[in-house]
Structure of Probable branched-chain amino acid transport ATP-binding protein LivG:
Amino acid sequence: MSSSESDTTADTDRQPNTQTAEGTPPLRVEGLQKSFEGIRAVDGASFSVEAGTLTGMIGPNGAGKSTTFDCITGFHTPDGGTVELDGRPITGHAPHEIAQAGLVRTFQIARELEEMTVLENLMLAPQHQLGEGMWRAVLPGSRGRRSVAASERELRETVWETLDRFELSHLADEYAGTLSGGQRKLLELARALLADPDVLLLDEPLAGVNPTLEKRLLERIEDLRADGHTFLLVEHDMDVIMTHCDRVIVMNQGDVLVEGPPETVRTNEQVIEAYLGGDV
Ligand SMILES: Nc1ncnc2c1ncn2[C@@H]1O[C@H](COP(=O)(O)OP(=O)(O)OP(=O)(O)O)[C@@H](O)[C@H]1O
């Protein structure tokens, strides 16, 4: 069943985190399954991501990390299992519905966005990720009897604050297509944030990023975590995972092998074995 064939309706009414039951993790995955022509890419994976954490997902090639991300974010419809956001089911919903519900992933800047400036990319970000109707609901000030023009002015202010925060202001008028790999990653993260997510999924946020920008990206992610944002990231750089994550989920053959704090995971024999005896 494709996400568009889903017979349930996404509970897309954004509710503040304060209304969720105390102790409910922002993201809970239970018994997730997805096969491709007999290959069990995800085979019963269950895990939670706790509020305000930077949780890393690691695992050998083919362990099922990307497929898990795609099932969580609605790009694949799982064959079985459930995904809950703040205790509300989002399993099998379309990607834009899941973004509206508060779970957003970073995307590579698409070709058409490369031909727009950095500023335009950010001004359009909420609209692109949430759909035309919903983006007005997240515009700053749009909940009162404010004019759209006033709201758009406030969005522009938010965008400039975001540009400052990410040290991208000097690139505001540059075409996104001219940015370096690291600057693009910063822009991708900034775009995702403008959708005002409860949970952010980052898929290899540091791939192709030079050490200076890697440091800046990690600092921004840590600031955002300190502000209460919740992250789940797939990253192959083990040092980054072990140094910056609060919790680590290790996947192997489509299932969760081990979950815990980095110091526990690093020394776990099953984990070392899964990486063919290499140093984790
Ligand atoms: N669209 C697809 N069609 C067929 N098989 C697929 C598809 N997507 C993933 N697979 C298979 O599912 C398994 C899990 O793949 P997945 O990409 O989720 O793993 P991964 O942990 O993200 O790997 P990597 O770290 O190499 O990106 C692999 O055997 C892969 O070949």
